[in-house]
């Protein structure tokens, strides 16, 4: 059974007197232990699709199943709880809280969640950040910040990880290191992950590749 499954997703926005159809009848699935990448040009609908996967946006029509539960039209409160406990996000910019130390970034997520989580210190050490536990975000390099963001995404043991252009602000070496960490963690912990990216140099690290263009999504042979 897929961790995440989209069935016939459509997303429309009003555009003056017209309707702009951003996503057109999209179906997609990702299973445990699978790391999927979605490629596509700017404006193709990648970000809209990822926000629907992450329960940040409801589709105009179609079904979003997370662990076989229909989350397509959850209330705002239900969506918030779902994102906190079942979905981990990794964004382009790490979006760390500037006044919290690195260890506190993860401990804060643990406090507001009602789900059993991983040892924050242990996961940071595992990602090579043991010497940064008492540092603030402004003392970290771009790659270190993204590793903290990865730790934060995995801290509550979510079944689904969503990564939005995680290498965008990094050079090619650091970007590859970050994606390798995501790949290894997904495989070791048997999680499902979806990454939106423009970076073709890291596609050898994913298990499946999808292409979105003009609002339509198709699987690409690796």
Automatic annotation (TrEMBL):
Organism: Companilactobacillus paralimentarius DSM 13238 = JCM 10415
InterPro entries on file: AAA+_ATPase (IPR003593), ABC_transporter-like_ATP-bd (IPR003439), ABC_transporter-like_CS (IPR017871), ABC_transpr_LolD-like (IPR015854), MacB-like_ATP-bd (IPR017911), P-loop_NTPase (IPR027417)
Keyword check for Transmembrane: no
CDD domains per record: ABC_MJ0796_LolCDE_FtsE (cd03255)
Subunit structure: The complex is composed of two ATP-binding proteins (HrtA), two transmembrane proteins (HrtB) and a solute-binding protein.
One matching Pfam family: ABC_tran
Descriptive protein name: Putative hemin import ATP-binding protein HrtA
Keywords: Amino-acid transport, ATP-binding, Cell membrane, Membrane, Nucleotide-binding, Transport
Matching Gene3D superfamilies: P-loop containing nucleotide triphosphate hydrolases (3.40.50.300)
GO cellular component, one term: plasma membrane
Major localization class: membrane
GO BP, one annotated term: amino acid transport
């Amino acid at each position: 059974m897929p961790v995440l499954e989209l069935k016939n997703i459509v997303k429309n926005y009003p555009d003056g007197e017209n309707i702009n159809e951003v996503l057109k009848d999209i179906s997609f699935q990702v299973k445990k232990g699978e790391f999927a990448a979605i490629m596509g040009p700017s404006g193709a609908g990648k970000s809209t699709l990822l926000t629907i996967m992450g329960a940040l946006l409801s589709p105009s029509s179609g079904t979003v199943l997370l662990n076989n539960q229909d989350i397509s039209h959850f209330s705002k409160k239900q969506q918030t709880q779902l994102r906190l406990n079942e979905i981990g996000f990794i964004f382009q910019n790490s979006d760390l809280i500037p006044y919290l130390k690195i260890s506190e970034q993860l401990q804060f997520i643990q406090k507001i969640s009602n789900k059993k989580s991983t040892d924050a210190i242990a996961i940071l050490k595992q990602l090579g950040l043991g010497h940064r536990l008492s540092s603030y975000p402004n003392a970290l390099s771009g790659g270190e910040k993204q590793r903290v963001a990865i730790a934060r995404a995995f801290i509550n043991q979510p079944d689904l990880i969503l990564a939005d252009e995680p290498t965008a602000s990094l050079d090619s070496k650091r970007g590859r290191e970050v994606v390798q960490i995501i790949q290894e963690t997904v495989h070791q912990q048997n999680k499902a992950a979806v990454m939106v990216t423009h970076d073709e140099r890291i596609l050898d690290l994913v298990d499946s590749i999808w292409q979105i263009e003009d609002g339509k999504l198709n699987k690409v042979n690796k």
